[in-house]
Amino acid sequence: MPELGFNEGAWRFGTFAGILLLMIVLEAVWPRRKRRHTRLRRWATNFGILFSDYLAVTLVVLLVPVTAVITALFAQQYQIGLFYWLDWPLWVEWLIAFLVLDFVIWGQHVITHKIPILWRIHRVHHTDQDLDASSAVRFHPLEIILSIFIKSAAVLLLGAGAVLVVIFEAVVNGSALFNHANFKIPPTLDHMLRWFIVTPDMHRIHHSIERQEHDTNYGFALSIWDRLFRVYSVEPELGHDKMIIGQPDAQDTGPETFLWSILLPFFKRKMPASNAPPSDKNSQETT
């Protein structure tokens, strides 16, 4: 099988860590909202979930060697996919591939809200009661595995190149860190950027406790799909400072704990949290 020619893991980690660090600095210097909870427990849980994602993906790749990049290399070796059958300029292929893959991720996000069994998995992401860069990695391992297979199928159909796939995934991961980050962008600039990409204010609406708001603004990188399919919201009803983030039946301490978050998809009804009192919706802890 062909090789990438560079260390994919090191490149991914370097870009992820660099963007994450930048977002953390921006959140510290220009915070958008006051935090409801301390960072320590939330970050420990969210990054703990990220580590469990890494372990799950490693196990899956050992059992079934499938990732989007491996699929791209496989398609290259056997000349499978649309781009290998059509003699298009490279820039056209890259543009189409980026748009199609971004749409596929958008579509996956939509169905995780619409299909009950998938919502139980994706709901882990939505139970975070604050939103910051760490929220971007709060995805249950089952959702990460599902995403791998969906992206791999799209890559195989397209015949997208491996380098393109690596760059696309870096862009999407960086976009997720950016649009979950809790930092302030001047309103004029924010509304200009929204014509092209998903901004933090735009995505925050998607994490609203209100159903009519969290069923909008599904985009990860590009904002075009929300506008095109008429699921775009401009502002939350209560405004960004007063809106409540999370799920109506998960406003206690449960989402701050790793085990609660990992086990959540396996319980049809609300899981018990801890003996600690529910979080005050009006709490404004900033430490």
Automatic annotation (TrEMBL):
<dbReference type="GO" id="GO:0012505">
    <property type="term" value="C:endomembrane system"/>
</dbReference>
<keyword id="KW-0443">Lipid metabolism</keyword>
<feature type="transmembrane region" description="Helical">
    <location>
        <begin position="12"/>
        <end position="30"/>
    </location>
</feature>
<dbReference type="GO" id="GO:0016020">
    <property type="term" value="C:membrane"/>
</dbReference>
<dbReference type="InterPro" id="IPR051689">
    <property type="entry name" value="Sterol_desaturase/TMEM195"/>
</dbReference>
<feature type="domain" description="Fatty acid hydroxylase">
    <location>
        <begin position="94"/>
        <end position="230"/>
    </location>
</feature>
<keyword id="KW-0503">Monooxygenase</keyword>
<dbReference type="InterPro" id="IPR006694">
    <property type="entry name" value="Fatty_acid_hydroxylase"/>
</dbReference>
<keyword id="KW-0812">Transmembrane</keyword>
<feature type="transmembrane region" description="Helical">
    <location>
        <begin position="94"/>
        <end position="111"/>
    </location>
</feature>
<keyword id="KW-1133">Transmembrane helix</keyword>
<dbReference type="Pfam" id="PF04116">
    <property type="entry name" value="FA_hydroxylase"/>
</dbReference>
<dbReference type="GO" id="GO:0006643">
    <property type="term" value="P:membrane lipid metabolic process"/>
</dbReference>
<dbReference type="GO" id="GO:0005506">
    <property type="term" value="F:iron ion binding"/>
</dbReference>
<feature type="transmembrane region" description="Helical">
    <location>
        <begin position="51"/>
        <end position="74"/>
    </location>
</feature>
<dbReference type="GO" id="GO:0008610">
    <property type="term" value="P:lipid biosynthetic process"/>
</dbReference>
<keyword id="KW-0472">Membrane</keyword>
<keyword id="KW-0560">Oxidoreductase</keyword>
<feature type="transmembrane region" description="Helical">
    <location>
        <begin position="144"/>
        <end position="168"/>
    </location>
</feature>
<protein>
    <submittedName>
        <fullName>Alkylglycerol monooxygenase</fullName>
    </submittedName>
</protein>
<dbReference type="GO" id="GO:0050479">
    <property type="term" value="F:glyceryl-ether monooxygenase activity"/>
</dbReference>
